[in-house]
Every structure is written in C-alpha cells, then in structure tokens.
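Aim 2, interim progress: modelling of the dioxothiomolybdenum(VI) ion-bound target.
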Amino acid sequence: MIQIGQAIPRTDGRLKVTGAATFSAEHPLPRMAHAVLLQSTIARGHIASIDTARAAAMPGVLAVMSHRNAPRLPREKPGGEEQKPPPPRLNLLQDDEVKYNGQPIAVVIADTLEQAQDAARAIKVRYAAQPARLDFKAAKLRKPKEQPDRPMQTSRGDVQAGLAQASQRIDALYTTPVENHNPMEPHATIASWEGDRLTLYDATQNISGVKKNSARALGIAPEKVRVVSPYVGGGFGCKGNMWSHVVLAAMAARMAGRPVKLVLERTQMFAPVGARPMTEQRFRVGANAQGRLLAVVHDTISHTATQDDFTEPCSSPTRILYASDSLQTTQQLATLDVGVPTYMRAPGEASGSFALECAIDEMAYALKMDPVALRLQNYAEQDPEKNIPFSAKQLRECYKVAAERFGWSRRTSAPRSMRAGRTLVGWGMATATYPANRMPAKAWASIAPDGTAQVRSGSHDIGTGTYTIMTQVAADALGLPLEKVRFELGDTAMPEAPVSGGSMTAASVGPAVHRACTAARDKLVALAVADQSSPLHGFNASEVEAAGGWLRLRANPERGEPMAAVIARNGGQAVSADGDAKPGEEKKQYSMHSFGAVFVEVHVDPDLGTVRVPRIAACYDVGTVLNAKTARSQFMGGIVWGLGMALMEKTEMDWRYGRAANANLADYHVPVNADVGEIDIVALPGNDTHFNELGARGIGEIGIVGVAAAVANAVYHATGKRVRDLPITLDKLV
Ligand code: MOS
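Predicted structure of the complex, ligand included:
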C-alpha cells in the first residue's frame, strides 16, 4: 500500500501520551544540578551592584554566576575572523549593561531546583537606570537591512497615478500587538561537559544551528558540540533561534563541574526568547468601478530591539496575492529597549494578511462587491512581482470549495443584515498564502538483515508530525510496511537537516529521506539481480520492484523473494545509503507558494460585544499532502491560533517599564476548546513537482494566515464596526 497521503496516526503518539517520549528537560543525567535564571527589572542602564554573597552561602548552592565571575567568552577582534563573537541577540553575562527588562543577569546553580529558586530570590541588585526608549510612536524609524528573497521596499507601476485614477479609495491603518510564543514545553536545556566536549539536550527547532551558534559563543569548535532534541513540545518560531539560556546552561555546567538543567519558567517566556513584534500597517488602495485594483500601497512599521534587529516582513503576501496595476511596499523599524523579537508562526504573513485582507474587504464594501468576487477580479494568474508562473496555484478552487462548504451564497451583503434571534451574525472571509520554502538536507537509510529499516535525519518533530510523515516517505521508497521502518531525528550526530522553520521540514527532509531510501533499496535490488541464488538473478534492476518487504518482478509478481533473504545470502550485513537533496534552479523559473481561503461565521452579542466563532470552513492548496491526519492537525492548529490572534492574544506591555504585565497563561489569553467551534478543512489534491520530487509544500504556517482578517471581516459584517486593531476585544465593539 502507498503510505504517503494516508491518515496514519502519529508513530510517536503512544510515546507522547504515555510519557515515554523524552523531552529536553527529561533526560536523566547523573549528578545533575539545577540552574535558575535571574532577570533584570529595568529596561536600560547598568548593574551598579549585585550582591550574591547571601545566595552563594545558601544550602545546596553550587555557584552564582553573574557578569562579575562568568567565564569570559570570545569577543569580536578587530580584523580577526577566527574568534567569532556570540550572535548579537545573546546576553551572556559579559558586562554590566542592561538592554531590556527581563534580560538574564545572573544564574544560580544548586543541587535542587528549589534551592536554586530560593537562592535567586536572595540576590540583591542595584541598577543605574537610564531613560529607556519604549515609545513606539516616538521611536526614530529606520529601514531594515534588505534580505535576499525578502525585499522589503518594493515598487512596480505608478501608485500615485493609480490612486489618482481610482473611483474608490481606501486609506486605513491597522495595528497588531506584541505576542509571545507559549508552546506547552517552555525553553529547556541540559548542558553536560565531558572534558572539552559538550552535549546539549535542548528544546529547539534547529539542532545544527544550536551546535554552530553555541560553539561560536563559547569559542570552541562545532565538532565538540552535540545537540540532542528527539521531542519538542511546540516551537512556533521561538525555538528557531538559539537564545541566551542555552549558552548560559553550558557556562553554568562548566562552572559547577556537573551537568546542569535550565528550564525557563512560563513568565520567562515573555522577554528573553523573542516575541512577535507589534506592527502598524497603513494600506492605501485604489480601484476602478469594476473592482480592478489600480494601486496598492502597504507601509509597515514593526518594532525591533536595541540589541539586535528583527523585521516582521508584513508585505510578503501583499507582493504576490493580487494583480494590482501598481504596488508599493515599504518597511521601517522602530527600535525599542526590549527583548529581541523573532519569528512567530507565519512571521509577516500572519500580521500582514490581517491588514491586507481587511483592506480588500473594506474595498469590497466601498465598491458594493462581493469580497470573493473582488478577489477573483484581481486574481494573479502569475507572480505579479517577478512575472514568472506559479509552480502550481489552485487558489480559485480554494475559494470555490470553501465558499460552497460554508454556504457563502446565502450571505446577505449588508452589515447587520444577518441575525440569529438577538445575536448579530457575520460572515467574513480572507485569502491565505505562504511561501514554499526549502533548504538542503541529508538523510541516511539502512535495511537490516531482519528486513527492518532504520532511517535518520538530524531534523525535528516540533509536534508537526515529522516522525510520522518521514516514516511514510521511507516506507514507500524502501518497499517496506510502516511497522518495519524506524525513523529517527533530533541529534546532530545524524545527517544534517535545516531549521524546522519556514514550514520547510517536509519539503526539505522528505526528498532527502526519499533519496536515501531509494538508494538503499537500489543497492539491495542490485545484490539480488547479481546473485545466482536469487529468483531475480539476471533480470534488469529496473524490472524489479520493492513492496511489502519483498523484491518482485514487476511483470510477474509471483517471482521474487523477501529482502531479508537477499541480505542473508550476501554477507548478512545491513545495506545502507545516504541521501542528499537540495533546491535547484526552480526558484528562478517558478514562483512557489501555498494558497488557501478561509470563511468564518461570528456571533456577536449586541449588548456585550462578545464574539463567538461557531464555525469556520477553509480550503488549502499545499501540493501533496503527506499525511491527511497530521496535515489536518497543522491546519487546525494554525486556524485556532488565528482565532486567538483575532480575538484574544496580546502581550500587555507596561510601557513605563518595558515589561509584560500578563506574562502567564492565566492572563495571556489563547483559545481553549470552549472557544473553538466547528472547523471544516479541505486540502485540495495537488502535486507540486516543480518544487520537489514529493510535490509537497510545507503546511506548518499557512493555517494561521488570513484567519484574523476573516474574523475581523465577519465582525464588520455582523456589527458594521470596522476594528483595525487586534485583538478584537469586546471593549472595541460596544
Ligand atoms: Mo516558523 S515562525 O518559521 O518556526
């Protein structure tokens, strides 16, 4: 049976629900000590004094590490490249400077977690504070550095002329707040030295990145570092970069002479490990009476940090989604004294699509056009920026399928025109899109004498289903039943794979696994046809197929033998092969993106302004779906997060101090089961072979894209109130 596409339950599901899966903080090491991070309580200034004497004398305390006694790390040497400094976003206790509230300023290491926590409270810090730059509106703006593949300042056609000619114009400002990642598993690192070799058990989306960057920060050779991360309890982008605590754990372990475990508390997830930056996006859109877009101008300001830059590239969807006659996008950064922001699920697309897809909706009302019809009127048949074809695009079909399943044709267009009893009912929709990303990846496959196979790639399963889909890809390529294939990941001792970010794991690692397995199978076939004792002897390798653990003649499946038999007669050694896959020149020929359409029904209480979302229908075009079940979970997780983004999620910064006031899961609101209604998800059949040999684009991020706009558009339809500031809380509706 072909396994790719099947709704196989997670191969690691039982391990996870029985607690047998070992997450980063759960690796039992002998003599493990526990570390606790102490954070700054001012946003900018210097540590005038830090008194650690009392803490150091407390029971069980092994060491207190601050800028006064922390191991000295490599610093940038003028002109010298060989001693590379740590990545600029890290705070590694090398000086007394405070650059944001919540910055790591000390680490306490003790026999037990409680002793370390207790001692951390006994540390006395005095600051010499300086005025912090914490006013987004007043911040001096500057342009971010251009990134290859992600132009920020773009222009085509004459937007001024387009706006002047337009019969309808929209000019609106949309804002999105700071948001913080809250995976179930917080960041966690166990660091263990054996001589000059370091092992890190780390909750990360990028084991090879942690290996390279921790080595760079510590000034040791990358070969001396091994990073292990077999299970990750959610990443969402915050585990894509390596943050300070990883290196601090290694420094602490060296200081204590013991393995050290450092787990961030929930509250510590709200400053030193990234956030989605807040954005302010202005849209100016002009259209003619028929609804053709003549001009689109998208100006974005996102916040960044003093310490290091991060840009939320909100114009990514704007640049490719509609065939507007002219378009201009700009991006600026407002620098604040806060922790460095970072990638959060669909960085740029999630926040950018909120503004774009609301602006298009506003234009639809201005034109008295159906929002779907307006989008179809401006459907981009090819990439409107690069003027090259899409590798595959079925967005028209997405609109059609989702609209039909939702019942969109029964919508009455006027705001406040639909009700269920007293409740205001609103129907809104939006487009989703996310780029098809891919990076080089390697894998290894080995068929054992007992007819089972081991397949490895140094990738990650951040809850996405990598174990499962790679087992399926491997089983098909090897011709083995699923249960005979064991796929392993999460160790830098394995062949290198890229960061599990940008929705690229399936698309990058899948082809490498496919190639390794195909190569191992081909080796086995070559052994069989060359073996006089094999029933396949003398046949051409191309006449032989592998399926169900057997090699058989294609033309005559009766003729064949078990794979194990071939190995047994040929030295009894496992047959292994490497696989290596990387993107080629296809990006120059094709514009590669996934697409989708999401339709939302909201119920708004006319007196209280509370918004409920009883149902959502969405349809996606993501190329080949490797596993119908894990794919659905990815889409659904993204959609649910989109609901949170629309209605609840916001880091309430206290801008006097640059500190999150709701840094816990009681006050930082995300949707729970009771907030989520029916979600109908369809993934169209597809096979984007221009992109890779599996035809599969990533699906980790597209689910969140467009959802906030669809909700906002539905809220407008229900209430006649256009809320352009997320989240849409009840105070904005009454
Ligand atoms: Mo994703 S935000 O690129 O982990």
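The chain has 16 helices and 30 strands. The first helix runs from residue 13 to 17.
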